[in-house]
Amino acid sequence: xxxxGDVSRAWASALNRATGRTDLMLGTLNFAAGFLSTTHLLAKxxxxxxxxxxxxxxxxxxxxxxxxxxxxxxxxxxxxRVRLRQRQCGAPDNAIYTSVRxxxxxxxxxxxxxxxxxxxxxxxNASAQEVAVAELVGELVAAGTSGxxxxxxxxxLCNETMPTVLGENWLVRSxxxxxxxxxxxxxxxxxxxxxxSLPGLVHFCLCNQLSLAxxxxxxxxxxxxxSPSVHRTRPYRPAQEKAIRSEIQQSIDAGxxxxxxxxxxxxxxxxxxxxxVAADLVPALxxxxxxxxxxxxxxxxxRQEEECRQIxxxxxxxxxxxxxxxxxxxxxxxxxxxxxxxxIFLKMREKYR
Length: 353
Description:
Blueprint: H1 6-19, E1 47-48, H2 50-58, E2 76-77, E3 82-83, E4 85-86, H3 98-103, H4 128-145, H5 154-157, H6 162-166, H7 170-178, H8 182-190, H9 198-208, H10 212-216, H11 241-253, H12 260-267, H13 271-277, H14 282-318, H15 324-331, H16 340-348
Antiparallel strand pairs: 1-4, 2-3
């Protein structure tokens, strides 16, 4: 009844007509139908907070079921900071009560109530990460059930405000913070009509310290997280022209050991930023990189020639023919005839024939 789809819409419409109300649709998760999928959305078993039920009983009020209790990723009560309980009291697990349990699957068979206080097990305190997840989803549910409109392309609209919060090259940075592939973040925020699972979106918001309720409205907004262990955002530093020019000049003086991409990765910026800040030094850096690569190739070729010369001298002392099969028997490695070392060997053996 509370999930996303046509069935919950039909039930809410029927109840609206039967009761004369117009707001029962807000009791479902259809407000997030534009950007959330039903994958891992609802819990498989009914859950409740015993402390919330006790507060309702003490106030002589009728207990009600918050929408957040149905969501699978939420495992704790954000108010009392304790683990949600599954309904333990019920019909015995045998064939006699199977048909009855299908009719009233969540009612207590001890007191007859939907949720009760029959469970006397010890209360488990929630961890900081579980509370952070519950608060994040609670903000989304509170905004959705209050009638705030969530656009269907909310995730795609976040592309405009993401750089102002996460900094330049935010897609790669946010993927690194979540320890996921950047293609997954690309599909989530840049693929038109894409819908994501709630656990994945919650994980993304926690790791990058973003507000889930604001992302559902189509804009990225920083949300302070009181649990430092649940987010691993890579530190973002604004472009500092002096430091960038100094690193590029050091690479040029060292003979072009570091390329522009390596320097961008070291300085935590994208190559476009380095080109914009030090446009006069980039050509000299490219020339130094090209010279370094040529020198590196020449040095590698010289090492391979020296290795082939030593192998040829050894084979001649052994009195065997200069073939690639004998080279393999001597080195223990297979030399394919199209490889660089094999071509150098075949050229050098002509001098000894």
